[in-house]
């Protein structure tokens, strides 16, 4: 590979790679090259990528992946929501085993969140192609659109479309960071609302969906294990909270009687960290995005809008936390004599991973000398939407320092390839069931 001084991802991946991991048709250098090629799409100088859902960059990344899929002998299609499906027929007809992830990113995201799952699923096919293995059942690779949610402040758009988990009302409410509707965004992308609706498929055509993903935490690193088992996926809820006060001149408006919604927002923000502690050990709430209007240095803010990300791996405590946050927003607004507008943008059902599937993943890990570590996923994944209809399973690959959604996001090539070996073994075992 040519050296790219601005983007040394390939060289960094190959630097400490253990070539003994190249066996059974799986090739580490192929994964390193493909991660590098994807990293050039939407590349930012600080080392990460910017590929929002339904952007030209996400579309370019999908086009590249489709090219690799076709070269591997897969039948490739794209639905009206931009989801890519690549299919390999098996010896027998029936429901397919599926794997995959996404290629969109958060702003200034890393190079592994999403792409690793897509390339892992594809590498299984590459290994079969090299070894002459023909699966017993059909196998599908799925690349979902707009998983991260950076486009609409509401993630998992592609898998919601595929499973029919998004309502007409939700579609009508979606607005992107430019204020464009879903219909307008789809038009720019090359699709339509009717085609988006038609993306819903019969999920019973899939027997099982399994996803490889970076851990986004430190449990595997602390345990010194390369790959772990996801025990459950937290269901995210995104609450849009808006405080509306009264604008005024910062110099001429007396402090008494001001209706400063940013002060109210600060009051609200300070209270948020306390609520999850009284709910459960796995509940979390985060405000990571806030907009101030009119955002002038000498203007008392008239409006503050923020997103509260609320999660738990169990639905009942997660929903109690939502209610508490809503109640707190209303209390704060009343205290500061301003208005509040609250809208629930996303509410995804948490998904437990079946014990039988966890045991089968553990069996695959044991074959490679890996002690099973069981980890609840605080992050949302497309597997959650599929998990409402079919069994799903997930593998985590070790993350350096637990960093994710950041250009410093890193998983060693050794760990990535080990994860692919485990995935391949698990899928081949599932083909026999």
UniProtKB/TrEMBL annotation:
It comes from the Bacteria. Its EC number is 3.5.3.9. Keywords: Hydrolase. Residues 234-336 form the Peptidase M20 dimerisation domain. InterPro entries: Amidase_Cbmase (IPR010158), Bact_exopeptidase_dim_dom (IPR036264), Peptidase_M20 (IPR002933), Peptidase_M20_dimer (IPR011650). GO terms for molecular function: allantoate deiminase activity. Belongs to the peptidase M20 family. NCBIfam families: hydantase, PRK09290.1-5. This is Allantoate deiminase. It comes from Planomicrobium stackebrandtii. The lineage of its organism: Bacteria, Bacillati, Bacillota, Bacilli, Bacillales.
């Amino acid at each position: 590979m040519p050296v790219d001084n601005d983007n040394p991802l390939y060289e960094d991946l190959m630097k400490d790679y253990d070539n003994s991991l190249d066996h059974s048709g799986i090739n580490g250098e192929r994964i390193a090259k493909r991660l590098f090629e994807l990293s050039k799409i939407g590349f930012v100088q600080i080392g990460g990528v910017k590929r929002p859902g339904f952007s030209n960059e996400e579309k370019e990344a999908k086009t590249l992946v489709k090219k690799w899929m076709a070269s591997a002998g897969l039948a490739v299609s794209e639905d009206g929501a931009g989801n890519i499906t690549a299919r390999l027929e098996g010896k027998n007809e029936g429901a397919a085993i599926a794997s995959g992830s996404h290629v969109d990113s958060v702003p200034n995201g890393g190079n592994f969140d999403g792409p690793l799952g897509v390339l892992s699923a594809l590498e299984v096919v590459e290994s079969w192609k090299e070894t002459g293995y023909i699966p017993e059942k059909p196998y599908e690779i799925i690349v979902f659109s707009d998983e991260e949610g950076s486009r609409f402040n509401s993630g998992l758009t592609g898998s919601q479309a595929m499973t029919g988990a998004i309502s007409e009302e939700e579609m009508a409410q979606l607005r992107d960071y430019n204020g464009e509707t879903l219909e307008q965004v789809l038009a720019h992308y090359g699709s339509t609302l009717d085609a988006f609706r038609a993306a819903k498929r019969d999920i019973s055509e899939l027997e099982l969906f399994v996803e490889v993903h970076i851990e986004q935490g430190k449990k595997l690193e602390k345990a010194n294990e390369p790959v772990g088992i996801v025990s459950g996926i937290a269901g995210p809820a995104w609450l849009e909270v808006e405080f509306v006060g009264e604008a005024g001149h910062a110099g001429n408006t007396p402090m008494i009687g001001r209706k400063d919604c940013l002060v109210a927002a600060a009051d609200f923000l300070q209270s948020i960290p306390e609520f999850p502690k009284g709910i459960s050990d796995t509940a979390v709430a985060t405000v990571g995005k806030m907009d101030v209007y009119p955002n002038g240095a000498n203007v008392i803010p008239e409006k503050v809008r923020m997103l509260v990300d609320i999660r738990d791996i169990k639905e009942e405590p997660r929903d109690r936390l939502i209610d508490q946050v809503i109640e707190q927003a209303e209390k704060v607004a009343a205290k500061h004599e301003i208005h509040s507008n609250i809208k629930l943008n996303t509410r995804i059902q948490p998904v437990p991973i079946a014990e039988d599937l966890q045991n089968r993943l553990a069996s695959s890990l044991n074959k490679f000398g890996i002690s099973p570590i069981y980890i609840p996923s605080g992050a949302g994944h497309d597997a959650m939407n599929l998990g409402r209809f079919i069994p799903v399973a997930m593998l985590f690959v070790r993350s350096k320092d637990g960093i994710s959604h950041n250009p410093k996001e890193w998983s060693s090539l050794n760990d990535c390839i080990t994860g692919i070996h485990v995935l391949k073994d698990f899928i081949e075992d599932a083909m026999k069931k």
